[in-house]
Design brief:
By secondary structure, the chain is an alpha+beta fold. The chain has two domains: 64 residues, 434 Repressor (Amino-terminal Domain), CATH 1.10.260.40; 105 residues, Jelly Rolls (Sandwich), CATH 2.60.120. The protein has six helices and nine strands, in the order H-H-H-H-H-E-E-E-E-E-E-E-E-E-H. It is elongated.
Length: 193
């Protein structure tokens, strides 16, 4: 939800824009503080409003975020609500992003598992990472290995599990289509890991 720029002070607007731009770009406070040559604790206090923003902070922060000072001072342009991510294919999975990067780190994907992805790795090689996964099977039958469990997930069924448990998912007897919600750790593991 966008703040009303007429009721928002310049200081509040810059703090809001600083946080918005940092999160949109997936940058940490540490990365921005390094780029802007500002102490991380000062940057955190600036962003949270615990420290007053000075005009001499604006050029360095804008440069660290790759925007103009006007972009940092001004209101955010109306964003395009369409999700335009390209599908990603790897290891028998094609994943279409259904959400843009969310501030909370959750992303939703439509996933197609090819019928070739039937054989899981040895249990000692099952993936483990921080986070939580949620999946809803639209079509086909999905095999989910979750720790010692070997499950069949039918169309119309959902699963939710901690990704600290060793896990793998694949097809049983044909392609599978599902919707999945991943946290940041899950997204990195399934897309890039």
């Amino acid at each position: 939800m966008q703040a009303n720029s007429t009721t928002e002070s310049i200081d509040e607007r810059v703090r809001r824009r600083l946080r918005e731009l940092r999160l949109e770009q997936g940058l940490t406070l540490q990365q921005v503080s390094d780029r802007a040559n500002i102490d991380i604790s000062m940057l955190s206090r600036l962003e949270s409003g615990k420290r007053r923003l000075a005009l001499d902070h604006i050029p360095g922060l804008a440069a660290a975020l790759g925007v103009s000072a006007d972009d940092l001072l001004g209101g955010a342009p109306a964003s395009d609500p369409r999700v335009r991510g390209e599908p990603i294919t790897r290891d028998g999975l094609t994943m279409w992003p259904l959400t843009n990067r969310a501030a909370g780190g959750l992303r939703t994907f439509k996933i197609r598992i090819t019928s070739r992805r039937r054989r899981p790795p040895p249990r000692s090689e099952l993936r483990v990472h921080e986070g939580h996964d949620w999946m809803y099977v639209l079509d086909g039958r999905m095999r989910l290995i979750l720790g010692e469990q070997d499950l069949i997930v039918e169309p119309g069924e959902a699963v939710e599990f901690s990704t600290n448990t060793p896990h793998w998912f694949g097809a049983i007897d044909g392609p599978v289509e599902l919707i999945a919600v991943f946290g940041a750790h899950g997204e990195r593991t399934h897309l890039h890991g």
